[in-house]
Amino acid sequence: MSLDNKPLYTGGCQCGAVRFRVEGALGDASVCHCRMCQKASGNFYAALVSVRDAKLEWTRGQPKRFQSSNYAFRGFCPDCGTQLTFEAPEGMALAIGAFDEPAEIAPRIQWGIEAKLPYADGIPALPGAETITDEEASSYLADLVSYQHPDHDTETWPPEDRA
């Protein structure tokens, strides 16, 4: 929470070059299966939340924008490519996965289901395993050092020992 008791959210891209802060209530959270969202996110769907009347501030860097249609722009980190925004005439939405606490933002509706991939609904039924149990990757996972920005604001980035 912010000092005036409005909800406060932070987030940013994978490399830390672009960071944001949202003060106030978020709008609708959704996933969109349309082909444009699949391409923009490089995934089965895009998970987005509207910032509506909340105050959005870019606290480090700015997204680069791509005009994906005559009405919409997609914002992404110019350094690492992380999808950050969907901007349309009715307002801006942010990628849920870019928030520092994405578990707090649950989608409530699916859009673009005409393009939903045929196996998307079956994913929850697939067997699951923790990352470290992947035997083919375990040789490097044990020594893996992440260069990903942490899920909180930092004074500077990257750390001096990586700059």
Automatic annotation (TrEMBL):
It comes from Allomesorhizobium camelthorni. Pfam families: GFA. GO terms for molecular function: carbon-sulfur lyase activity; metal ion binding. It comes from the Bacteria. Transmembrane segments: none annotated. This is GFA family protein. Belongs to the Gfa family. Keywords: Lyase, Metal-binding, Zinc. Residues 9-120 form the CENP-V/GFA domain.
